[in-house]
Design goal:
The chain is an alpha+beta fold. The protein has a single domain, classed as Double Stranded RNA Binding Domain. It is built from two helices and three strands. A three-stranded antiparallel beta sheet has the order 1-2-3, covered by helices on one side. A hairpin with a 4-residue loop joins strand 1 and strand 2. Helix 1 packs across helix 2. It is elongated and about 45 Å long.
Length: 126
């Protein structure tokens, strides 16, 4: 690990991942009703859980993210087979410098969000 005085995250990584995925889902699903934990308790039609297992980057190399995610539909109290989608995402992108590194992480989070949005869309049509 290398500490760089001019290249820093503005927020804790956990908060930033939640915020970025929520922003992407809001755009992809065409709604402003995306709420992040803990505010989402008992108010949501769908609950998305993301467990990030690996979030690595090296400038001039690859940016990698591995996450497990689930989508649960709360409307029918999890009683049908359409209430759960679960996946493992292994995402890679290249980065030539620190600015590209941030863009690559955002690209990976965008791809993760797109997969989650597809699952929510499929569930809502059933």
């Amino acid at each position: 690990m290398e500490i760089l005085e001019q290249q820093r995250w503005a927020q804790p990584l956990k908060n930033e991942i939640s915020r970025v995925v929520a922003e992407h889902l809001s755009v992809l699903l065409g709604t402003n009703k995306i709420i992040t934990y803990p505010l989402a308790a008992n108010k949501s039609d769908y609950i998305v859980t993301i467990q990030v297992q690996n979030f690595e980057s090296k400038p001039s190399e690859n940016v990698q993210m591995r996450a497990y995610w689930t989508v649960r539909r709360t409307l029918d109290n999890f009683q049908t087979s359409n209430t759960l989608a679960a996946m493992q995402a292994i995402l890679n992108a290249s980065a030539s410098n620190y600015d590209a590194l941030i863009m690559a992480h955002n690209q990976n989070l965008s791809r993760l969000s797109a997969d989650i949005a597809k699952s929510i869309t499929a569930m809502s049509s059933n």
